[in-house]
Design goal:
It contains 3 helices and 11 strands; from the N terminus they run ββββββαβββββαα. By secondary structure, it is of the alpha+beta class. It has 2 domains: 112 residues, Elongation Factor Tu (Ef-tu), domain 3 (Beta Barrel), CATH 2.40.30; 95 residues. A hairpin with a 2-residue loop joins strand 10 and strand 11. The chain is elongated and about 115 Å long.
Length: 230
């Protein structure tokens, strides 16, 4: 097989050795955007996160394994499967995984077992852990996406649980008060009739009638709050 023309270790895509690679190009985009500031000469730049490293390789597949190597590269390009890549030119980049972004192969008629190719590899890092948000709390995993643990969410679960308990207590107290008022209204009715002008509990009856719809509305709100807080 032809010798390595890269002047170093043989480049490899997965298990495929590119022993006759002739030309390798590596590109990196910094991921900067220019910001326009009125009155400022020049444009400051903000880094949003760099683009994936890209590597373009051209060479020949020759020898007894050429057809198998061609099939392996074609399969990677067809399936989009992430794989590894090693070469001197990316030693300092710490690329973990790459995908074949494009692949071109040529064969000269009359030269069996020899294929010219150009392959473009793009870095494909693993995704970060997803953020997991439970009902009004449990912000697990968000800190892995950018250090949000410092925003003061540590006691959020306990705080919301306390609010839910207080809502339950208020609902119970309100129900007790309304029940007592209803009992007093019944007592007033037995004492002289609800419509009696001289009924001494007449003011209580009027107040009870006014509070009944308010109590129902507050009970509904507190019930909804308890439901939201789990």
């Amino acid at each position: 097989m032809a010798g390595d023309d890269t002047g170093g270790a043989t480049p490899m895509i997965g298990d495929t050795s590119l022993t006759a690679a002739q030309w390798i190009r590596q590109e990196t985009g910094a991921g900067l955007v220019a910001l326009r500031v009125p009155g400022l000469e020049g444009s400051p730049h903000q880094r949003l996160g760099r683009w994936s490293h890209r590597v373009t390789i051209s060479g020949l597949l020759v020898g007894g394994d050429a057809a198998d190597d061609l099939a392996s590269l074609q399969k990677l390009a067809r399936d989009g499967t992430a794989t590894t890549f090693t070469a001197d030119i990316v030693t300092a980049l710490e690329i973990q995984r790459v995908v074949v972004e494009s692949f071109v192969a040529e064969q000269v008629v009359g030269r069996p077992g020899q294929y010219a190719y150009t392959v473009v590899l793009a870095e494909s890092p693993p995704l970060p852990p997803p953020a997991r948000v439970s009902a009004f709390g449990g912000l697990d995993g968000i800190g892995d996406l950018g250090g949000l643990d410092d925003l003061g969410f540590d006691g959020l679960d306990d705080t919301l649980a306390g609010i839910a308990d207080q809502a339950g207590e208020l609902t119970g107290a309100l129900d007790t008060a309304l029940a007592a008022a209803a009992a007093a209204a019944g007592l007033a009715a037995m004492a002289g009739g609800i419509d009696a002008i001289d009924n001494p509990l007449r003011p209580l009856l009027d107040t009870t009638g006014q509070l009944a719809p308010v109590g129902d509305a507050v009970s509904g709100i507190l019930g909804n709050l308890r439901g939201l807080l789990g």
